[in-house]
Amino acid sequence: MFATKKKYYLIIQNTRDIKLTNIKLFNKFTIIYRNSGKKENLTDLKRFRQLCKRKRMQFFVANNVELTTKLKADGLYISSHNNDLKLARLKLANYKIIGSIHNIKELSIKKKQMCNSYLFSRLFKTDYSFKKDYLGVVKFNLISLSFGEDLIALGGIRKSNINKLKIVNSKSVSLLSEVKKKPAIISRLF
Asked: Domain residue spans in the chain?
């Protein structure tokens, strides 16, 4: 056993980033589809969505209400730079909403957007040259306790520091770049 959490969020750029057949514990995973580049075929996305449904994995679409409804996704992922308060109406249509935050100000906006969960970034140091700061385990735990919310840890989670997730005060964890770079990390989560 390496890192056991109640839920794992896997953020993918396209459906080829992950092989769902590699995932054994289906109801523990949520897929967040965040396509910012080349658009994928709607038929392929619907097929991927159906596969998620068969494997009892939740499927969220990032920042695209129209695609969320077309795919009959479980909900919407709202990135930290998206401050549109009209997105809260999705909550009334029984969609779940996940918000991404980096600080207290963004948390208050995401609460107004009626988010169910919050991805709080950056737990560990990342390779991004324009993103140098990170929280670390102690600071993340202190912020999580003071917010009174169960924040989902995101950022810099790699094979080398995955064991540190045991001491992170969060029931869930989210992976972004490691899903694509090293798909074998998914098997290390148990």
From this structure: 7-189
Strand pairing partners for 121? 154
Q: Specify which residues 75 forms β-bridges with.
A: 60, 96
Q: What is the CATH code of the structural domain delimited by 7-189?
A: 3.20.20.70
What separation in angstroms does the CA of 36 have from each of 62, 67, 170?
A: 9, 13, 28
Q: Which long-range contacts (CB under 8 A, 24 or more apart) does 74-82 make?
A: 74/30, 75/116, 77/11, 77/32, 77/34, 78/110, 78/113, 78/115, 79/34, 80/106, 80/121
Evaluate the omega torsion of the peptide bond into residue 122 and state whether it is cis, within 30 degrees of 0.
Answer: yes
Could you list the beta-strand ranges (E) of 142-188.
151-154, 172-175
Reply yes or no on whether the pLDDT at 190 is more than 50: no
Q: Which of 158, 150, 149, 160 is nearest to 179 (CA)?
A: 158
Quote the pTM value. 0.82
